[in-house]
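Example: beta-N-acetylhexosaminidase.
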Amino acid sequence: MAPPHLIPTPTSMTAVPSSPFRLGAGAAISGDPDAVAALQAHLDALPDAPSAGPITLTVEAGGAAGSYRLEVDAASVTVAGADPAGLFAGIQTLSQLVQSGPDGWSIPAVRIDDEPRFAYRGVMLDVARHFHDVDTVKAYIDRASSLKFNVLHLHLSDDQGWRLEILSRPDLTARAAASSVGGDAGGFYTQDDYREIVAYAAAHHMIVVPEIDVPGHTHAVSLAYPELSEQPVLSEHVHEVVALFGGDLPENGTGYDGMAVGFSSLKIHEEATYDFLRDVFREVAGLTPGPYLHFGGDEALGTGPADLAAFVARASALVAETGKIPVAWHEAGAADRLAAGTIGQYWGFVSPTDGMDDKARRFVAGGGRIILSPADAIYLDMKFSASSPLGLTWANGPTSLRRAYEWGPAAVIDGIGDAEILGVEAPLWTETIRDLAAIDAMAFPRIAAAAEAAWSAPFASTPERTWESFRTRVAGLEPLWTRLGIRFTPVQAGDPS
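Written out as structure tokens, the predicted fold is:
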């Protein structure tokens, strides 16, 4: 059995007949310079900041992408990654293994052979509903990468604000970036800010997936380019959300700080709309070295089915023209002319409703794959308990830690197994999330459940992949999270079951 504090649980782990490795002064960490620096940063966070060694960190080609081997005995520690990403993952495991005892800090004698189940292991941070500055995004990268996530999806535009400087369309940030939900201050990233985020993510072996959400979720665009926007569709749902959460009804040309969705749309039949998207997508693609660009396509309730199909066909083609792989939320799967290879992101429930699974399958039929983000399992903005002051409950909420854990990616959509799944992503929408403390409280510990779904063997396939094992291991990580300054929700408080 894995130690009680190791998450995600590794592929295989065996005890070595040896005393633990003692961390002490005067010894050295050697090997890959970037890996040495990463491990030293972890050890520096320990009380008394011990030196450590002999610890050897190397890249040894030959294993599966992202895999590593970790060996510990009383005399030495070795971490060998099949590639730099695998070595980085091994360092995260090693950092979790460090234990405090009467004789100081030590690492148990073990051998671990480990590799990821899915290539894409993501977290999403919505910076549109509430803006989160560069330092906050970097802190979230620190937290996510420590659990072996390798993708940061940034939701950069929505009804409440546009968050990325576009040089060819300067009015987007000059006129459409100032507000957030509830009348809070807005903000945006300059292109240099965005490059800084991308570089910081790369140093943590994460890529950035930027999302420009169209044709819905575009009320902010109406502040900068009203000629591209339809009038808001004020449905019964919009009136209900305003009645429940307050705020004004949306009106073109006026900033929107409410929480309703589905009322906005770009003009589908205007060529100027596609000229706008071409400019935006080209700049975003040029700033982003990763392979993906997300164009949304969700909750376009103000756009008819035929118009939405026509739009997502053109939008996906415009993304593909930039050299990026298009990604869209599963609703875009209703279109029959998506660009070949477009990736679908499924945000429906663990038990699909309303034909959401059929739309997701369309991406696979078109040569793409699926990212699983079931809202009633790993939407980190759902309340974790009825008494939580933060979060929402629309996704069959509240979502307990146990429910966040007890699901399997390959069991959600019939006919969509591991071969068709690109990966798993845990979104954090920020209608109620204003700062890093709130991010921590909502993400931790449920983010660990998503990490294990993305990295480890299928749920219930091993003794470690059970709720009982996971809950014990999460509780065992709390001292480490405390040392790292993560303001998590304690396991018992966040999951009464």
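The first strand starts at residue 12 and ends at 15.
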